[in-house]
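Chain A, query sequence.
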Amino acid sequence: MTARTGMGMRRRLLLAQTLVLLAGGVTTGLVAAVVGPPLFRDHLHQAGVAHNSNEQFHAEQAYRAATALSIAVAITVAVLTAFVVTAYLSRRLQRSIAELSAAASAVAEGHYDIRVASPRLGDEFDELATAFNQMAERLQSVESTRRRMFGDLAHEIRTPVAVLEAYLEAVEDGVKTLNPETIAMLREQTARLVHFSADAAALAQVEESHTLVAPDWVDTADLVSAVNVAFADRYAAKNVTLHTSGGHTGPVWADRQRLTQVLGNLLDNALRHTPAGGRVTLTAAQRGADMIFRVEDDGEGIGAEHLPHLFERFYRADTARDRDHGGSGIGLAIVKALTEAQCGSVDVSSRGAGQGSIFTVTLPAHTPPAAHDVRYEPSVSSSSK
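Chain A, predicted structure.
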């Protein structure tokens, strides 16, 4: 199939150049036959050659012979040149197309590490090669993420399932009884599975479409107060102080439910990694056209080598400790996806292990062009805890 494509291209190139040469040859012949003789004859008369003389006759014959010979030689050389150029270009095109076709077939079979070299046949072909390599690189990244995700999913599910299976076998064998302690352990592992499946479903849903985000004016102070109330009992149960501040800020253009989920995931993450007696602070402040939310804790901190990867799916700075804390490894990925879906950004900083961490969410605080008709009425601001 590739060979037929190459030969067809070669024939088309040769035919196109032949037509151009024929058109040029015919035009040159007509001009030489119709326009040339009268001009040549006039110049002979101006040079003193008599009308209808033998000199005029032989000169005109010489002119016609020289013209015909020149045109014939020019067309022959042009045809040979066109054939050589066509053969050279078609061979290069055929080789480049064959390479690209083979690479596309390899990618279709799952070999996403294939790349094609630039054919150097012009900007269009270079752009095609670049686009193909970008596509292959993207597919390779997606496939790598998919494999890692399935491996992580299997690993995450395997641990609680193994614990459940071991406890059930122990109960069946009479080694353990269904006392409150055993039931509490079974419920803990079940809750872990439910929490993990809910996080995985939420992440898939968020990354599928941004239509889940319905932005509107959100009273920042009211939002911070609501989040504070929602987490107060959990923080108190672990003896971790939760301090919130945002009573003097303006509104933010965001999806209230999704922004609550973002802040909730960050506070949940901070609580897991802050020991009893620690402190977590949630602040909201306007900076220019942006609203800045900061969740700062004085807990375990994060090593510099982990910071660039924290928002990746299933990534954990300390795998064993995070599992003990009940983390699914998906919460921060959800934070990133939901924040970016609202035209915002999120980043993290830490001075190192044992030095706490700071998560910063930045969202637009201004009205988008399509939302000038949305009215915002601020509610009563709340105080921090």
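Residues 2-111 form one domain. The chain has three domains: 2-111, 144-208, 213-371.
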